[in-house]
Design brief:
globular, 16 strands, about 325 residues, single chain, 1 helix, mainly beta, 16-stranded antiparallel sheet
């Protein structure tokens, strides 16, 4: 269990706890766990997140998922790859529930299906109403009104990693996922989500590891709620940018990280990533987004779960501090 404390203008003082339980396992490559976090702020905002990751005893079946419920602030910067033209605070009142059961055809290859439920209501102060109306005229109004989405899909995974949290041997990971939200099932909009995640881990010298990832995320549909659009930034994708500052219906990134053991449970990492967001229906190119930085890792348990602290910069002259658990990829 790790305590959380922070201060932001939108939240005032916030505090909470993040933690996980990792089951005993004879195999480091498939470790069952339940992790999550609870956060509360002095402005009466809160969010709860739970992530189960469960394998059967024979390691033939897997159940992944996510449960997220929140009443929490965020900011709207518009849609597109160019420098944001607006900055509007709002509150997201939402729930998100995902199930991802799968079956291992062979130890390295699994096939499964996606089941997703989510709903959201956006709240904002009356003083921002005119700004929001201007933003809606420019970027569209989808997502500002309450909506509900119910989706079904499938995914395929090829995974040779010796450990899902911190691979140290030469290994590969590939995941292709498709998820369709359709009005026929009760969704507010017809939206298709496609993602591709490719990773490789290459041991180099005395416990050091070179890791790289290529990631792509796409939403297809005439109307897509703005908070469902792919975004870069945050603690995992192109670190150094604020999450949701750049969003559109297609996002890609390529990132590399060099991981170096220091002493006992401590490790260091240097990383760099590049990518961008685009509108697949009207391709326009702007300044490519680049993030880079370095960080420290502290191993928390024998499952190789690390506490992670990163300092990341970007090519827009900004920087971010990130304190979280598990690796970016």
């Amino acid at each position: 269990m790790v305590p959380i404390a922070f201060y932001q203008e939108e939240t005032s003082v916030g505090f909470g706890v993040s933690g996980g339980y990792y089951f005993n396992s004879s195999s480091l490559s498939k470790i069952s766990s339940i992790s999550g976090s609870i956060i509360y702020t002095l402005k009466n905002q809160a969010k709860i997140n739970v992530n189960p990751r469960l394998f059967t005893n024979g390691k033939k079946c897997y159940l992944g998922g996510n449960f997220n419920i929140k009443y929490y602030p965020d900011r709207y910067y518009g849609i597109g790859t160019t420098q944001p033209q607006c900055d509007i605070p709002y509150i997201s009142k939402s729930f998100d529930l995902k199930f991802q059961p799968s079956y291992y055809v062979i130890p390295e290859f699994s096939v499964g299906f996606n089941l997703a439920f989510q709903g959201e209501r956006i709240e904002y102060e009356e003083q921002y109403k005119q700004q929001i109306e201007v933003a809606q005229q420019k970027y569209g109004s989808t997502g500002w009104n309450p909506y509900f989405m119910w989706g079904l899909g499938a995914y395929f995974t090829y995974d040779t990693r010796d450990n899902g949290f911190y691979p140290q041997k030469f290994s590969n990971f590939v995941k292709l996922s498709a998820l369709c939200y359709v009005k026929a099932l009760g969704s507010s909009y017809d939206v298709t989500s496609l993602t591709l995640d490719v990773r490789q881990y290459i041991p180099t010298w005395v416990g050091q590891v070179f890791a790289w990832q290529i990631y792509a995320d796409m939403r297809i549909g005439k109307e897509v709620p703005f908070r469902m659009l792919p975004t870069l930034g945050g603690s995992d994708n192109i670190r150094g940018f604020r999450e949701r500052k750049f969003t559109d219906n297609f996002m890609w990134e390529a990132q590399v990280e060099y991981r170096i053991p220091i002493w006992w449970r401590l490790k260091a990492a240097v990383f760099c990533s590049v990518g961008d967001v685009y509108n697949i229906y009207d391709l326009k190119y702007d300044k490519l987004k680049v993030g880079y930085g370095l960080g420290l890792r502290c191993r928390l348990n024998e499952a190789r779960v690390n506490l992670r602290f990163d300092v990341a910069f970007n090519n827009y002259g900004e920087y971010k501090f990130m304190f979280t658990a598990t690796e970016a990829f």
